[in-house]
């Protein structure tokens, strides 16, 4: 017979069980709709210009404006989650673990519908296509993304999907996994607590520094297709929550020394990652910005300047190194009993190395001999 305490902490089913797969589908469609409504409506002061940021120059010489209020969308979603926890208790969030497969399947369906829409819409006249996504091969173009900046009015689909539904879903799934662990154990382990802080920080930091996404490859170069749609809705939203899900099902107890080491690793990784990304972003937006005015650079025939000191003088993709160190910190929190949580560092290394090759090729084509000159000054690729 289970004790009274056990039956309260560890019920076999929740009262939301009856919602089943349809509930899972509705939940997945509600999240993008909610983030979309927040995106369109959020404005927290009376100065609209603070919410609109100009992107980098496009091939046709124009510049697009982007609404940046991801941080507020994230905070409001967290507020909604806290309100649900306060009023309805843990059960609504336990639904996420109970229906994990249904939720993932639903997110794949949503990602597919969106990529199909942007693929078909890209054939309208006057659309600016991505250079790499216009091969004529239907499957390839559908995957990679045909149109560079699919928009409905001023609503930029790619920029929205890059930072909103995936990162917000990942944060919500992590919280749900912590609740699940609490339900099973009666407490939350330090590892789970740190995952919530580290990954929550990563997501909140990304939406707080939303303008930085405008100078990344995804926005400036890649089209929006299945890869980014599935990547953000499903891969980021659910697979990136792997460590939290693992810890919910297999709690791990770490020593103080291990925890101290992991915290230091996370801090070093974050300092490199955020330092490098901000440096480039500030510089590209305004080279006279006092935060980056001191940096050395070379001018290029293509018009852009390439930084050759500071973070970008150490390696050509030092930002990837920071991101990879962070991914190690997350996996190490899962201990050493299983290899499964380490899938993330391996996958991420492959992603970053492949991305580095792609970006190198893009920059070599764009900057030609100026890129050779740059590579002679900044010799290292990712690790200095
Ligand atoms: P980067 O932010 O590294 O941007 C690359 C571009 O920056 C180049 O194409 C070039 O563009 C410009 N550039 C290159 N060198 C210089 C320089 N010396 N000075 C000024 N500009 C330069 O690319 P990503 O979009 O790949 O990465 C952004 C961040 O996102 C990274 O930190 C990465 O780790 C992270 N990321 C995370 C993922 C995840 O799943 N967690 C997935 C992918 C990325 P231009 O043509 O303008 O010169």
What does this structure look like?
The protein has 16 helices and 6 strands. By secondary structure, it is mainly α. Strand 1 (about 50-55) and strand 2 form a beta hairpin. Helix 4 crosses helix 8, helix 9 packs antiparallel against helix 12 and helix 13 runs antiparallel to helix 14 (about 320-330). Mean pLDDT is about 90; it is low at about 1-10. NADPH dihydro-nicotinamide-adenine-dinucleotide phosphate (NDP) binds next to helix 10, helix 13, strand 6, helix 14 and helix 15.
Characteristic key phrases:
single chain; 384 residues; mainly alpha; two-stranded antiparallel ribbon; disordered N terminus; binds NADPH dihydro-nicotinamide-adenine-dinucleotide phosphate; oxidoreductase; Delta14-sterol reductase activity; membrane
- Overall geometry comes to globular
Helix and strand content put the structural class at: mainly alpha
Tell me the strand order in the biggest sheet. Answer: 1-2
Low-confidence stretches: 1-8
- Computed over alpha carbons, the radius of gyration is 22 Å
Bound molecules: NADPH dihydro-nicotinamide-adenine-dinucleotide phosphate
Query: What percent strand?
Result: 5-15%
Biggest β-sheet: count, sense, barrel? 2 strands, antiparallel
How many beta-strand segments? 6
Number of continuous helical runs: 16
What percent of residues adopt helix (DSSP H or I)?
55-70%
SSE string: HHEEHHHHEEHHHHHHHEEHHH
- Provide mean pLDDT, rounded: 90
Distance N terminus to C terminus? Answer: 60 Å
Catalytic activity: 4,4-dimethyl-5alpha-cholesta-8,24-dien-3beta-ol + NADP(+) = 4,4-dimethyl-5alpha-cholesta-8,14,24-trien-3beta-ol + NADPH + H(+)
Transmembrane segments: 20-40, 68-87, 99-120, 185-204, 224-242, 254-273, 327-353
Pfam family, one: ERG4_ERG24
Organism: Dentiscutata erythropus
């Amino acid at each position: 017979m289970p004790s009274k305490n056990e039956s309260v902490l560890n019920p076999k089913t929740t009262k939301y069980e009856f919602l089943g797969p349809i509930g899972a589908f509705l939940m997945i469609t509600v999240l993008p709709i909610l983030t979309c409504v927040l995106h369109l409506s959020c404005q927290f002061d009376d100065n609209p210009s603070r919410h609109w940021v100009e992107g980098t120059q496009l091939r046709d010489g124009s510049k697009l404006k982007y609404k940046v209020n991801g941080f507020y969308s994230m905070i409001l979603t967290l507020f909604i989650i806290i309100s649900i926890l306060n009023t309805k208790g843990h059960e609504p969030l336990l639904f996420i673990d109970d229906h994990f497969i249904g939720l993932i399947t639903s997110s794949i369906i949503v990602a597919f519908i969106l990529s199909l829409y942007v693929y078909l819409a890209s054939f309208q006249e006057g659309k600016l296509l991505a250079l790499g996504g216009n091969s004529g091969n239907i499957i390839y173009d559908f995957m990679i993304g045909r149109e560079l900046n699919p928009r409905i009015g001023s609503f930029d689909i790619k920029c929205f999907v890059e930072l909103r539904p995936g990162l917000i879903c990942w944060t919500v799934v992590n919280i749900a996994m912590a609740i699940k662990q609490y339900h099973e154990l009666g407490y939350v382990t330090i590892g789970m607590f740190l995952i919530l802080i580290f990954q929550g920080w990563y997501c909140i930091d990304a939406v707080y520094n939303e303008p930085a996404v405008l100078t990344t490859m995804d926005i400036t170069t890649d089209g929006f297709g299945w890869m980014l749609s599935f990547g953000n809705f499903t891969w980021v939203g659910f697979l990136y929550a792997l460590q939290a899900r693992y810890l919910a099902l297999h709690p791990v107890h770490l020593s103080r020394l291990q925890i101290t080491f992991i915290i230091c690793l996370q801090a070093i990784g974050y300092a490199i990652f955020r330092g490098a990304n901000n440096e480039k972003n500030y510089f590209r937006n305004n080279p006279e910005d006092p935060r980056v005015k001191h940096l050395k650079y070379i001018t290029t025939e293509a018009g852009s300047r390439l930084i050759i000191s500071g973070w970008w003088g150490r390696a050509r993709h030092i930002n990837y190194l920071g991101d990879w160190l962070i991914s190690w910190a997350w996996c190490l929190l899962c201990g050493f009993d299983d290899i499964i949580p380490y899938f993330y560092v391996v996958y991420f290394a492959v992603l970053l190395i492949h991305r580095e090759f792609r970006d190198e090729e893009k920059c070599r084509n764009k900057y030609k001999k100026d890129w050779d000159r740059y590579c002679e000054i900044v010799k290292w690729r990712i690790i200095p």
